[in-house]
Amino acid sequence: MARTSVKSTYALDVETVRKLERVAARWGVSKSEVLRRAIDAVAREQAAAAPSPLEALEELQKSLKLSPAGARRWSREVREERLVSSARHQWRRR
């Protein structure tokens, strides 16, 4: 299967290049293939560790330490601000 490639240039320190070459030789693949596999493994690991959208929302809400009464007050204030700044409200005031 043909693979679309994008050539890129990166600066690596000597020790990293030596490690890359050793892994490529051990696996019997190109240095590019070693980098592809390593990047893929890290990306999969991060995706698995990422919270679901619902978990992220719950974490955010907990971090705000907002009580139910405080949340209602905030919601009321936001609605009032939106009403005051809305174009329809401005038109009605004329």
Report on the structure:
- With 94 residues, this protein is mainly α.
- Helices cover 73% and strands 0% of the residues.
- The protein is built from 5 helices and no strands.
- The radius of gyration is 27 Å and the shape is elongated.
In short:
With 94 residues, the protein is mainly alpha-helical. Helix content is 73%, strand content 0%.
Secondary-structure map with pairings?
Elements: H1 14-27, H2 31-49, H3 53-64, H4 68-85, H5 87-92
Helix pairs in contact: 1-2
Helix content: over 70%
> How confident overall, as mean pLDDT?
88
Enumerate how many helices there are, as a single number: 5
- % residues in beta strands: under 5%
Rg, rounded, reads 27 Å
Report how far apart the termini are. 68 Å
Shape: elongated
Segments where pLDDT lies below 50 for 5+ residues? Answer: none
Number of strands: 0
Whole-number total of structural domains: 2
Largest sheet features = none
Please give the oligomerization state of what you see.
single chain
| SSE topology string | HHHHH
Structural class: mainly alpha
